[in-house]
Amino acid sequence: MSDDLLAVRTQVARQVAHWRAAVIALDDLENFASPAAWSRLERYLGGALRANLRAAVSRLSKEGDVLAAELRAAETADELELVRRHVVQFRRQFLRVETGLEFYGSAVNDRSSPRLGALLAACDILADRTLESILTPLGKPVPPVLTYVDKGLGASILRAGLRLWDGRTLSAAAAIKLTRHNLNGRPTAILHEAGHQIAFTLGWNDELAAALRRELGDDPELAEAWSGWSSEIAGDCVGFVHAGYAAVAALHDVIAGEAVNVYARRPFDPHPVAHLRVLLGTAMATRFFGEGPWTGLARAWLIAHPVARAPGDVRPLIERSVPRLQRITEVCLLDPMNAFGQRPLTALVDPLRVRPDALAALARDAGASIGVSSHWLWSESLRLLALSGYRAATEPDRAPEIAAEFETWMLRLGRGVRMAA
Length: 421
What we know:
Layout: H1 3-26, H2 35-39, H3 43-73, H4 77-109, H5 114-135, E1 145-150, E2 156-158, E3 174-179, H6 180-183, H7 189-202, H8 204-215, H9 220-228, H10 230-243, H11 245-255, H12 259-262, H13 274-289, H14 293-304, H15 315-321, H16 325-333, H17 345-348, H18 356-366, H19 374-379, H20 381-394, H21 399-420
């Protein structure tokens, strides 16, 4: 072998050795999250997630073995050049796998704090109960849920079943991001994000889009707009049927802001115009609950953001949408869907169970044991969330007391599941 060829081979061999050794470090998941954080995951979730991530590393390791074999067989300059190119591709794939590990490691590491770990365990339960309420009666598997905390205003989800950054590994868990400001009292965004997983699993998004397109077919612009918002509307529907006004008020507080954002309609954005999204939520509450605090919220919303102030390019859309919100509500919540076995969503989850008088009855029946009894915590956790959120929305003068009560029962719920794991 010539000196030039030997020099090239040495450099390629060094890189192959480096990246194969780097893969070994990926296989130790404690390099990404502490043992204490991993131990605070429920067994099923922790087992599924570890197996998922290790499978990605195993595939990468096998690709490294192939790369080493190619190097051993390479004898010519052209063959070594091909190996060098494969090293670059392998490095790119390494970084993709590493991104997935860093993402989940960071999410798991949120459990390092005992208090935050217990709160997130409770959030896992709330999301799991939301998924079970719809997927289980339909015979669909319920994926594990991993909730974590991050900055910002809005929540998000990495759905189970989606391909991760490496393009090969399917996410084993639904990873739901919660924001710090909502974790302290009313994390109803969990329900919305779980709704995205439900819609993905059942194919509901496309069906809802088609139903809205048919309903609004006499107005092509409205039909195009509302059908394009179906995925976010689906999430809002799941939040509403499980938490009622608590979900509507919490959504309002996240998307209320500067007028430029309230009226904005952005190309390819799946979120409805914020002005209409709030009014759709209050229309849902009015349709199922009659008059109530949501009536005042809608009035205050229109005072702060009158339709007349909307920019000219979106005002006609808003003006023509408002009179049709009741029917849009009915399409979303009362029309039978193939996704739900030719039943409406409300046949699976009855929103009347979170009507204010129903929540008051829950509080009365449970009495002082409402946030203490394991029976109420396990059987009514979603309605407890709805009750806490309703009180937070309607009794602002008692905000510190309500937040403290919420944290107390959430900690009990989260610590209970860890003890059972």
